[in-house]
Specification:
559 residues, alpha+beta, FAD/NAD(P)-binding domain, Alpha-Beta Plaits, Glutaredoxin, 3 domains, 8-stranded mixed β-sheet, 26% strand, globular
Length: 559
């Protein structure tokens, strides 16, 4: 992977990198070489999936039809849950250090602030609510991490142009600068974006709603002394009857989204001579008349909320934008795609290592289809509020905004984009229903919440880091055991007698463990069983060996 920084922190222009195409021995094989998993698409989702699989001891061939990373900021808002996944993949720290952390959002109507909100109002989390970081940095850091893993074979300028499936394999036809060759794969992960070639080759389509509006997004480099927060304007004086979104990114770059309306000319609006007056009007309006700026990258887009009907088609599993798409309000695109990869990786590893039946992959499709529907629902509601399509809708929206200046009840109706949170997979067939009474959000299907925790060595640490599997672990489940004394000892004994491979994490009472106990509504002896992707799959006040064994088997789709 020539061109990548050899040491973290070295200056790299990730937008200018060009990766070398290299001929692979597979191209000269008499019969198609067979690989357990082929991932198509080296964007954030494909890279995350490949890294996760490799860390679970699954060899991966990663194909990309290009030889570059993304240009322009594109996806910039990466949520706390995504950062926690990237922690497990070994690259979140660099992203947080480089990115701009934030948690406060402000909503304006005209030139007046309607209200503000805090996305992480409580302490006791290692990672921030969000970071803003240009997508090319995220891809670059992931690519550097992938280069460290010998089980990842990343092939640039390898474009999939054909696919066929039978009972034993998927056969890919791949075009390269030196001609065409074929690969056989046990499973194929389609992470090749919104214009997915694999989706087209399989005769599938994404269905949903296309919104008749256009937005200009621009990267603007400026030295503006503005707070690190999300600002959203409805009908501002500097851009009347439209909306504007402002975010700070790394390197003194600011992301500005201007609603343009359906009749705007996308070619003309991308020109710098049209962007500059819009940015100048924004800065003048907020008291930064003297700030100088440069336009870095710009694009005009129309968006849709849609998804494929099914995310699994035989041996091909779709993830990220190839499977689903949402409007950008709420940062649900890249974040949900990384959660797709997080869900799929451990399940593929379990099936390939003979620890689970093929039916486990069906649960990937059903769980992430549910999550996609949730994201589409939130994104559609936000878009309808931001871009009313009738005078009646606009009157309702403006009345809500006006009322929200003084009345809290109205603020719940304001929707400038419900920001991304992980889906709670309540209806998953992998969950074991509660037999005991619990309070709080850590229900079966929820992603585990972080909290301060004393580590195994006694030093202060974080709960989610203790849940991460050791190097070389494949699909290990974790049992979280709370408290001490007789009740905790009985629970530990039940786990031992269940005779299943578990990573056991103790949460001692009081001190650093007190907040964890609150978040999990734990008493002495309470046990949570967590899947390899850190989602709760079962919990008990006092487990039995039989219950633990049955819950683990259910979470692996056995029986």
């Amino acid at each position: 992977m020539e061109g990548l920084a050899s040491t973290p922190g070295a200056a790299v222009d990730y937008q200018s990198l060009r990766f070398d195409y290299r001929r692979h021995p597979d191209q000269d094989a008499a019969t198609p070489a067979h690989h357990p998993v082929v991932v198509v698409g080296a964007g954030p989702v494909g890279l995350a999936l490949a890294i996760d699989l490799a860390q679970r001891q699954v060899p991966v061939v990663l194909l990309d039809n290009d030889c570059t990373l993304s240009s322009g900021s594109r996806a910039i808002c990466f949520a706390k849950r995504t950062l926690e996944i990237f922690d497990r993949l070994g690259c979140a720290a660099r992203m947080v250090d480089k990115g701009v952390s934030w948690k406060v959002g402000r909503v304006f109507f005209g030139d007046q602030q309607v209200y503000s909100f805090d996305l992480l109002p409580e302490a006791g989390h290692e990672r921030p609510a969000f970071i803003n970081l240009q997508q090319y940095y995220v891809e670059g850091y992931l690519a550097e991490r992938a280069a460290e893993l010998p089980l990842i074979d990343l092939r640039w300028n390898n474009k999939v142009i054909g696919i066929a499936q039978d009972a034993d394999r998927a056969l890919l036809t791949i075009e390269t600068p030196e001609g065409v060759y074929q690969l056989a794969a046990g499973h194929v992960a389609a992470c090749d974006g919104s214009r997915s070639s694999l989706r087209q080759l399989l005769g599938q389509e994404a269905k949903g709603r296309v919104f008749r509006d256009r937005f200009l997004i621009a990267d603007v480099h400026m030295d503006a002394d503005l707070p690190t927060e999300r600002r959203f304007w409805f009908d501002p004086p500097f851009h009347p009857k439209q909306s504007v979104l402002l975010h700070k990114q790394a390197d003194g770059m600011w992301r500005v989204d201007f609603q343009l309306g359906w009749d705007a000319d996308p070619v003309e609006e991308r020109k710098h001579e049209h962007i500059i007056p819009r940015v100048r009007a924004l800065l003048d309006s907020i008291g930064h008349q003297g700030v100088q700026f440069d336009i870095g990258w710009a694009s005009v887009y129309t968006f849709a909320c849609q998804r494929m009907e099914r995310f699994r088609h035989g041996r091909v599993l779709f993830a990220g934008d190839s499977a689903h798409g949402v409007s950008p309000f709420g940062a649900r695109g890249a974040n949900s795609g990384v959660q797709d990869a997080d869900n799929l990786a451990w399940k593929l590893a379990a099936v390939l290592h003979g620890e689970a039946p093929d039916a486990l992959l069906d649960s990937y499709a059903s769980e992430r289809e549910y999550a996609a529907d949730e994201n589409i629902r939130h994104s559609t509601r936000a878009t309808d509020f931001i871009t009313p399509k009738s005078e009646v809708s606009r009157l309702f929206r403006d009345a809500v905004l006006e009322l929200s200046k003084r009345h809290a009840f109205a603020r719940a109706l304001v929707n400038s984009g419900r920001l991304s949170v992980p889906s709670t997979l309540r209806a998953s067939t992998l969950n074991t229903p509660d037999v005991d009474a619990f309070a709080g959000a850590m229900v079966p299907g929820a992603a585990a919440a972080d909290a301060p925790l004393a580590g195994a060595d006694g030093r202060a640490g974080w709960l989610l880091r203790e849940l991460s599997p050791a190097a070389g672990a494949t699909t290990r489940f974790t049992a979280l055991v709370f408290g001490d004394g007789a009740a905790a000892e009985r629970s530990l004994d039940a786990l031992a007698r269940a005779d299943v491979a578990l990573h056991v994490v103790r949460v001692a009472p009081g001190g650093a463990g007190e907040l964890a106990a609150q978040r999990y509504d734990a008493r002495p002896g309470t046990v949570y069983l967590l899947r390899p992707d850190q989602h709760v799959c079962a919990r008990w006040r006092a487990p039995t060996p039989e219950a633990v064994r049955a819950a683990r088997d259910r979470a692996l789709a056995k029986g």
